[in-house]
Every structure is written in structure tokens, then in C-alpha cells.
Amino acid sequence: NQILFYISIFALLLGSVSSSLAATQTEEANLNESELSIETAWARMPIGSNNNSAAYMKITNPSAQPITILGASASKVANNVELHKSYVDEQGVSRMAALDKLVIPANTTVNLSPNGIHIMLIDLKKTLEEGKEIEITLQIENSKPIKCKALVRNN
């Protein structure tokens, strides 16, 4: 009877470990599926003596759930980084507004572009050099940050 008791305990423990491993693998798969894909990231060189710049990129959400970008940072090059949207007001004047967050819908690609949604690099710490790359980090809701390299361009 003692042998059966120990075999039963061992079987229960083995089943528990297998379930935990399967759950961990599923959670890891879900985290990997929620990764955003960043392509063609670039940053504009500042115009004239302006100490600000902007970054643009194509962001793809391949998952079945929306993913929210809560903000961005580029601590090596800018003192402040904000999500922005450009628009034209009722008088036909171009304006910009800060965004609290950017939701990338499921199975969708969002293009950050001039005259649209973009990442503002405010109060640059150093000169952006054409052809060099800068690192931008996107803060993702309920997930780890995503880092990308943006090529500095003069246009």
C-alpha cells in the first residue's frame, strides 16, 4: 500500500509539473505573438536651428489583440519624447497635438509619417547626423518595451 501511495504522489507531482510547463510555454507563445514589428524607422534631421526632430516608422501588430503604445523614449538623443499627431484645423492651419497613447489594432499596420502620427524628439541632447542611427524605445502596455534603430535622414 505504501508503494501505491508513493506512486500516486509521484504521478500527481509529474502531472502538476507537466501542466506548469505547458502553461509557461503558452504564456511565452502569447508574449511572442504580441510583439510589434517595426520596419523602416527613420528620424528627420532638425531644420535650421530647431532643437527638435521627429521619428517615423511602420508598426505592425500581427496578433489577434490590439496592442497599446503608452509612450516612447530616446534618452541618448532627446530630453523629452512624445507621441504626436499632426492635423489641419478649421482655419487650414497645420497643428500638432500630443497623444496619451497609440493603439495598434489587431492584424493591422500603422504608418507613422510626416503630417500624421509621429514620435517627437524634443530638446535634442546632441546633433543628429545624417546616415547614423538612433535608438528609440517604445513602452508597451502590459508587455516589455520594444527597442528599434532609426536611421537619421535629411528629408
Question: Mind explaining what this structure looks like?
Answer:
This protein is of the alpha+beta class and 155 residues long. It has one helix at 2-33, and strands spanning 37-44, 53-61, 67-73, 78-88, 94-99, 102-104, 108-112, 117-124, 133-140, 146-153. Residues 16-33 have low confidence and may be disordered. Helix content is 21%, strand content 47%. Strands 1, 2, 3, 4, 5, 6, 7, 8, 9 and 10 form a ten-stranded mixed β-sheet that branches.
- Net shape: globular
Rg on CA atoms, Å: 23 Å
Q: Stretches where pLDDT falls below 50 for ≥5 residues?
A: 16-33
Helix content: 10-25%
Strand content: over 45%
Characterize the biggest β-sheet. 10 strands, mixed
Number of H- or I-type helical stretches: 1
Q: Based on helices, strands and strand pairing, what is the structural class?
A: alpha+beta
Helices and strands, in order, run as HEEEEEEEEEE
Mean pLDDT: 84
For the termini, the CA-CA separation is: 81 Å
Q: How many beta-strand runs?
A: 10
Keywords:
single chain, alpha+beta, 1 helix, 10 strands, globular
Produce the secondary structure layout.
Elements: H1 2-33, E1 37-44, E2 53-61, E3 67-73, E4 78-88, E5 94-99, E6 102-104, E7 108-112, E8 117-124, E9 133-140, E10 146-153
Parallel strand pairs: 1-10
Antiparallel strand pairs: 1-2, 2-7, 2-8, 3-6, 3-9, 4-5, 4-8, 9-10
